[in-house]
C-alpha cells in the first residue's frame, strides 16, 4: 500500500429513543440515523517500523489505545503490526458533539485496513465494530438506518434515490463537549418515560414531506441535556426568539441541527444566528443529508 485516503462522515440522529437500562449497564435504543456531508479525512500509509502510529490535526485527541482508530487498527492487525501502519486523521467533525466522529473514524479504519491489507475479514467487521463502541456498527453501514439494541442492530432503510440530495442540514456546533455516559446518567435519574416510535418520521422521509419530518424528529436526551448544559439551553431559547423554531439535538449533544429542503433558508438562519447569538462560541456548517 502506498497511501489510501478515506472520508469518515458525521452521523445525525433524526430519531433517538432511549428505552430501559439493561442488566449489562447499556440502554435499549431505537434510532433513525442518517449521514451528513461533513467528514474527517483519514490517510493510511505503511511504515517500515512495526506498530500503529496515529497523528491527528486536533491536538486534544489522544493518540494511544484510547483513540477509537487505534482500537480498530489493533483489533484487525494486533498491537504491533509488522509492517507498521501510519494513520493521519484530519478532524472536521467536532469531538463530544453527538455526531459520532470517532466512531465513524473507527469504522473507516476497519473497512480500509481490511481491504488494503487483503485480510478477508468482511464478515467479522460488524462484531469488531460493536466491540469498539455502540455507534461504530452504524458507521460501517452508513446512510439511512434504523438502529436498535445497544445500537448494533442495524437495518438499512431503502428509499427511492434521487441524483441530487434533497434534504439539507444546518449544524450548530457550540464549543462545548457533552459526555455521553453522563447524559445517560441524567436520564436514569430523571426516569425514562414512555417513548414514541419512529414510524411517522419514516413515512415522512419516504414522502419527502419536510413539515412532517420536522414534526416527527425526536431525541430522549433533549430535555435533560438542555437542563444541564447552559450553552444548549441558551442557543435553543435564542433560536426560538429569532426564528420561532428550536434546533434538534444529535446524540446527547452538543451538536444541534435544523433540517430544510431549501439550502437558502438554512443560510439565512445561519446569518441571523451569527448576528444574534452572542454566546457561546459556535461553528456553523451547512451540509447535505446522505441517504
Ligand atoms: O458504547 P460506547 O462506548 O459508545 O458508550 C459510551 C457510554 O454510553 C457507555 O459506557 C454507557 O454508559 C452509555 N451507553 C448506554 N447505552 C447504549 C450506548 C451507550 O448506556 N446503548
Which features does this protein show?
291 residues, alpha+beta, Ribosomal Protein S5, domain 2, 11 strands, 35% helix, binds cytidine-5'-monophosphate
What integer is the average pLDDT?
95
CATH topology assignment of the largest domain: Ribosomal Protein S5, domain 2
- Report the bound ligands by name, code or SMILES: cytidine-5'-monophosphate
CA radius of gyration: 19 Å
Spans of at least 5 consecutive residues whose pLDDT stays below 50 are none
Give the N-terminus to C-terminus distance in angstroms. Answer: 31 Å
Total strands: the figure is 11
- One letter per element, helices H and strands E, the order comes to EEEHEHHHEEEHHHEHHEEHE
Tell me the structural class.
alpha+beta
Question: Layout of helices and strands, plus pairs?
Answer:
Elements (H helix, E strand, L loop, with lengths): L2 E19 L5 E21 L4 E5 L11 H10 L6 E7 L10 H16 L8 H8 L3 H6 L3 E5 L3 E4 L11 E7 L5 H11 L8 H9 L2 H6 L2 E2 L2 H7 L1 H14 L4 E2 L6 E5 L2 H14 L5 E9 L1
Parallel strand pairs: 1-8, 3-4
Antiparallel strand pairs: 1-2, 2-4, 2-5, 2-11, 5-6, 7-10, 7-11, 9-10
The structure holds cytidine-5'-monophosphate.
Walk me through the structure:
With 291 residues, the chain is an alpha+beta fold. It has two domains: 4-156, Ribosomal Protein S5, domain 2; 168-290, GHMP kinase, C-terminal domain (Alpha-Beta Plaits), CATH 3.30.70. The protein has ten helices and eleven strands. It has helices spanning 68-77, 101-116, 125-132, 136-141, 180-190, 199-207, 210-215, 222-228, 230-243, 263-276, and strands at residues 3-21, 27-47, 52-56, 84-90, 145-149, 153-156, 168-174, 218-219, 248-249, 256-260, 282-290. Strands 1, 2, 3, 4, 5, 6, 7, 8, 9, 10 and 11 form an eleven-stranded mixed sheet that branches. Cytidine-5'-monophosphate binds at residues 26-27, 29, 133-135, 150-151, 180-181, 184.
Amino acid at each position: 500500500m502506498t497511501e489510501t485516503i478515506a472520508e469518515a462522515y458525521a452521523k445525525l440522529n433524526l430519531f433517538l429513543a432511549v428505552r430501559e437500562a439493561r442488566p449489562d449497564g447499556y440502554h435499549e435504543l431505537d434510532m433513525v440515523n442518517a449521514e451528513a456531508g461533513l467528514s474527517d479525512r483519514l490517510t493510511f500509509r505503511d511504515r517500515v517500523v512495526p506498530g500503529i502510529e496515529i497523528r491527528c490535526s486536533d491536538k486534544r485527541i489522544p493518540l494511544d489505545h484510547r483513540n477509537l482508530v487505534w482500537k480498530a487498527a489493533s483489533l484487525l492487525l494486533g498491537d504491533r503490526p509488522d509492517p507498521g501502519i501510519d494513520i493521519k486523521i484530519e478532524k472536521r467533525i467536532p469531538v463530544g458533539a453527538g455526531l459520532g466522529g470517532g466512531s465513524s473514524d473507527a469504522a473507516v479504519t476497519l473497512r480500509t485496513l481490511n481491504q488494503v491489507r487483503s485480510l478477508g475479514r468482511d464478515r467479522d467487521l460488524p462484531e469488531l465494530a460493536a466491540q469498539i463502541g455502540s455507534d461504530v456498527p452504524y458507521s460501517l453501514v452508513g446512510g439511512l438506518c434504523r438502529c436498535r439494541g445497544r445500537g448494533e442492530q442495524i437495518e438499512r432503510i431503502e428509499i427511492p434515490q434521487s441524483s441530487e440530495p434533497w434534504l439539507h442540514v444546518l449544524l450548530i456546533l457550540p464549543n462545548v463537549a457533552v459526555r455521553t455516559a453522563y447524559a445517560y446518567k441524567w436520564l436514569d435519574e430523571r426516569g425514562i418515560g414512555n417513548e414514541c416510535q419512529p414510524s411517522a418520521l419514516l413515512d415522512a422521509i419516504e414522502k419527502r414531506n419536510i413539515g412532517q419530518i420536522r414534526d416527527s424528529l425526536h431525541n430522549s436526551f433533549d430535555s435533560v441535556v438542555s437542563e444541564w448544559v447552559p450553552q444548549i439551553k441558551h442557543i435553543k431559547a435564542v433560536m426560538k426568539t429569532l426564528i420561532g423554531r428550536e434546533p434538534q439535538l444529535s446524540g446527547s449533544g452538543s451538536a444541534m441541527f435544523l433540517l430544510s429542503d431549501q439550502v437558502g433558508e438554512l443560510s439565512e438562519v445561519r446569518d441571523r444566528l451569527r448576528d444574534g447569538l452572542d454566546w457561546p462560541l459556535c461553528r456553523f456548517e451547512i451540509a447535505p443529508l446522505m441517504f
